Amino acid sequence: MAVGPLSRYRGMEALEVRHATRGTTRSLPVRRALPAPADPATARRHRWTGYDTVDLLALRTLGREDLYWALLDANSGRLPDSYRPGDLLLVPSADDATRIERA
Questions:
Q1: What is the rounded distance in angstroms from the CA atom of residue 55 to the CA atom of residue 69?
Q2: Tell me: the pLDDT tens digits for 20-31?
Q3: Residue 16 is assigned to a structural domain of this protein
Q4: Largest CA distance in the chain
Q5: How far apart are the C-alpha atoms of 87 and 3, rounded to whole Å?
Q6: In which domain, by residue range, is 41 found?
Q7: Are 92 and 53 within one domain?
């Protein structure tokens, strides 16, 4: 099972599960360890207005709306519903969010 180079699941091993009726299926783990939150000294900040959506914020700040997960990870995995107007979000640099390490 291939995942894109910018996917939050890149580099994770696929699990093989054997079913009595469906045979063998492959899937990615449901949970993964969160990286360390963004460094407040180097990350940009965004004040949550209540009208924002995380995917559009990712599009404006990181250049791709499918990198919304990088914003969530940078803020300790907080879900969008937990933000209140006035909260400060840390925005990682686009370089960090889109860095691809090649072997």
A1: 8
A2: 888 888 776 665
A3: yes
A4: 53
A5: 33
A6: 35-97
A7: yes
